[in-house]
From TrEMBL:
PANTHER family tied to this protein: D-THREO-ALDOSE 1-DEHYDROGENASE, OXIDOREDUCTASE
CDD domains per UniProt: AKR_Fe-S_oxidoreductase
Name of the protein: Aldo/keto reductase
Species name: Desulfovibrio desulfuricans
PROSITE patterns listed in its UniProt record: 4FE4S_FER_1, 4FE4S_FER_2
Amino acid sequence: MMKKLGFGCMRLPLLDANDQTSVDMEQMNRMVDTFLERGFTYFDTALPYHAYHSELFVREALVKRHPRESFKLATKLPPRMLKTEQDQQSIFDEQLEKCGVDFFDYYLLHNLGVSSYAQAKKFSCFDFVLRKKQDGLIRQLGMSFHDTPELLEEILARHHQELDFVQLQINYIDWENPGIQSRRCYEIARKYGLPVIVMEPCKGGSLAIVPDKAAALMRSHNPTASIPSWAIRYAASLEGVLMVLSGMSTLEQVLDNTAYMADFTPLNAEEHAIIRQAVDIINADTAVACTNCRYCVEHCPSDIPIPDYFALYNSSRRATSSNNSSQYVYYLNMAAKHGKASDCIACRACEDVCPQHLEVSEYMKDVSKVFDNGPGLPSDRPGKA
């Protein structure tokens, strides 16, 4: 039996926060080594992560430095990127080469939603990955999903016998969220008897730093437990959960996560009650539920760093008048190199790829009201046409 914690390779340590390809390989090597030394084996990556470089970083830190039998590797085929049915073969071959492996332990159809599922049907993606499994190039076959329970029901009714697992966004803040509906998606997966791999247990890090009142509740129960541990243990406590992925960015996060997940203990009734109280506090405190997945960024014609602006906006909403000015400074620096919030043309290209189904163009109006009238914001961006 594998330990229930997986190493998500979507948020690797960076030397330059503005460059997704500037991964700190020295720190990543230590993180991978520590993860394996503590008995954990599952690594999850995907073609688009880290500006299409994550699989290469995984090869360097993991595959080249450790025996193949010592780890399980997962990556994903993105139907949204396909232009022809033949593209699947070229992408799969590229992934084998980039990862430096002869087969994938786990392989997923990536981020199935309305448009990507249409692509998957158009190009017979399920048939393609099944052939790869029959050929021994895939050991376990699954799909990751970011859409409505109704669509999940439609897909699984047709394909559940072909799948070995489903990867779902599950965390305590999204369990009853009407936009995400984690509970209903989880129940549908279980209805079809499919094991669940959990992604976004900390919702892109937002459940690692919770409002002070929620943090106080958690610490009063267990002063030594980290705030993220509550979120990961919550997901891991669900029946049928095979693995919980954590997108770890520092060695400290690896040490913390592997410490409490080494001998995993499910949440008890009192801890579940604390979580329910924390949900009410967090919901009252969060303006935009962005997870910083950054799928939206490459689709923005105005070059707006959408997740970064949302993070600043959320911080500004929580800030007191004495410390809010720092948010303006960060915004000024970003707006000097990228599009301002007011540059949004409401094309909604970002909304089509947002796993959280956020009304980005509407939220961007709120961000603009807060920051674009701030002191000293330039009307033109140097170096931008």
